[in-house]
From TrEMBL:
<dbReference type="GO" id="GO:0005634">
    <property type="term" value="C:nucleus"/>
</dbReference>
<dbReference type="GO" id="GO:0016706">
    <property type="term" value="F:2-oxoglutarate-dependent dioxygenase activity"/>
</dbReference>
<dbReference type="InterPro" id="IPR003347">
    <property type="entry name" value="JmjC_dom"/>
</dbReference>
<dbReference type="InterPro" id="IPR050910">
    <property type="entry name" value="JMJD6_ArgDemeth/LysHydrox"/>
</dbReference>
<dbReference type="GO" id="GO:0005737">
    <property type="term" value="C:cytoplasm"/>
</dbReference>
<dbReference type="GO" id="GO:0045905">
    <property type="term" value="P:positive regulation of translational termination"/>
</dbReference>
<feature type="domain" description="JmjC">
    <location>
        <begin position="33"/>
        <end position="179"/>
    </location>
</feature>
<dbReference type="Pfam" id="PF02373">
    <property type="entry name" value="JmjC"/>
</dbReference>
<protein>
    <recommendedName>
        <fullName>Jumonji domain-containing protein 4</fullName>
    </recommendedName>
</protein>
<dbReference type="GO" id="GO:0043565">
    <property type="term" value="F:sequence-specific DNA binding"/>
</dbReference>
<comment type="similarity">
    <text>Belongs to the JMJD6 family.</text>
</comment>
């Protein structure tokens, strides 16, 4: 639906006493920042400026995880945890939202209590953390927290998902869980399906948006850009590709250290070792060695 049509619908919905034959429609996941005319609409809060997820997709110039949400009173987002177990932040331009938060692990207690075969560990759930977000206020959603959001007024908000050195290990843990879920789902075809492990990676990417190969490339791109920051700091001139990160030496070193920790786990994972990494440049083991040497040199200063 074009934006102009949605705005017309919204006006008619309000005039119809917040009712419409088309139901209560929510405009979600509008990639305003991918529209050239939207450049400079807002300034990224400094607290959330280390944003590997959007840095990576901006580098590829194919996607992003920055969204506009807008809708009338009564629109809502169902119970979920954010993609890749990313952090997220949300700012209300106008209107109010009611947030219901559950810390990691509590979602297990919300599964169907009538099916003890599927969910034998069902237990009572603690009350959610309830937050009312006013216009002009920002809400931060921690990694892995399930939440549900209701618009109490006609509301417009800006929302970002992001990953950085503080939760990239959560992302890697989530991807391992996703692959296990896929493998379990198609386990009966393991012996009869040629290249079963590769098919699981394909299915995983279709369901989750990323697989082990792309996760390596995600880590590689961020690592190379941080290494360029250190190169720029160490010598004269500007390192190509380092501009626009807004990062200093300490932040770059921290990021490289966290990437190295996760990459060390990635390269020894049996399903990653089944990938054809001969075409990867650099090779995962070589990149890991470079990152570990860089961290060792930085910490010895």
């Amino acid at each position: 639906m074009p934006l102009r049509d949605y705005i017309s619908y919204w006006k008619e919905f309000i005039q119809g006493d917040y009712s419409s034959p088309r139901g209560c429609l929510y405009l979600k996941d509008w990639h305003l920042c991918r529209d050239f005319s939207a450049e400079g609409v807002f300034t990224l809060p400094v607290y959330f400026s280390s944003d590997w997820l959007n840095e990576y997709w901006d580098f590829l110039d194919v996607d992003d995880y920055r969204f506009i949400y807008m809708g009338p009173t009564g629109t809502w987002s169902p119970f979920h945890a954010d993609i890749f177990r990313s952090f997220s932040w949300s700012v209300n331009i106008c209107g109010r939202k009611k947030w219901l938060f559950f810390p990691p692990g509590q979602e297990e207690a919300l599964r169907d209590c009538y099916d003890n075969h599927l969910h034998p560990k069902h237990q009572p759930c603690s009350p959610p953390l309830e937050v009312t977000q006013e216009a002009g206020e920002m809400v931060f959603v921690p990694s892995g927290w399930h939440h549900q959001v209701h618009n109490l007024d006609d509301t417009i908000s800006i929302n970002h998902n992001w990953v950085n050195g503080c939760n990239v290990a959560n992302m890697w843990h989530f991807l391992q869980q996703e692959l296990c879920a896929v493998q379990q789902e198609v386990s009966e075809w393991k012996d009869s399906m040629p290249d079963w492990h590769n098919h699981c990676q394909v299915i995983m990417r279709s369901c989750s948006g990323i697989n082990f190969e792309e996760f390596y490339h995600f880590l590689k791109i961020i690592a190379k850009r941080r290494l360029l920051v250190l190169t720029k700091e160490a010598g004269p001139g500007k390192a190509e590709g380092s501009e626009g990160t807004g990062l200093g030496r300490q932040q770059a070193t921290f990021d490289i250290g966290r990437i190295a920790e996760v990459l060390a786990s990635v390269v020894v994972h049996p399903d990653f070792q089944r990938l054809d990494t001969s075409v990867f440049s650099p090779k995962p083991e070589d990149l890991l060695q470079q990152l570990e040497e860089t961290v060792a040199a930085a910490t010895s200063l």
